[in-house]
Amino acid sequence: MAEERENIFLFVPNLIGFGRVILAIISFYFMPTHCTLACTCYITSALLDAFDGTKFGAMLDQLTDRSGTACLMVTLATFYPQWTFWLQLSLAIDITCHWLYLHTVTLQGKTSHKFIDMSENPIMHVYYTNKTVLFFMCAGNEAFYAALYVMNFHTGPI
């Protein structure tokens, strides 16, 4: 008789990841018109990123993060058409750098993108090993785009 295998899709961290995806999709739907609901779903999805624990969850987290940022930037480009080029450039850099870095880590046979040898890249080492640096870099990036989003509803487009 075949040995039963655990269903990784039902691990709690992965269920949280699926919840993140659902919240992100809800936020995308409401972004153009309902600031408070969209922000609540988007921020909750982003905060749930702290709960991971499986390889599948790590992959799902990266995809959810990149998709969330992309959809927010698309919305910002509709709010601020004069800044579309810069939003596109920022998005292209974000996706390209994350993809290249994760692909390189995979080719090197590493088990996680967060394990950095100091001799390879000291900046990335600090980024991934110092939780304060990681938090403020990620939070600062998200806060900037979130501020542009909220400003559209409260002060009008810049």
From TrEMBL:
GO terms for molecular function: CDP-diacylglycerol-inositol 3-phosphatidyltransferase activity. The keyword Ribonucleoprotein does not apply. It is a multi-pass membrane protein. GO terms for cellular component: Golgi apparatus; membrane. The keyword Phosphoprotein does not apply. Its main location: membrane. InterPro entries: CDP-OH_P_trans (IPR000462), CDP-OH_PTrfase_TM_dom (IPR043130). It is found in: Membrane. This is Phosphatidylinositol synthase. It comes from Operophtera brumata.
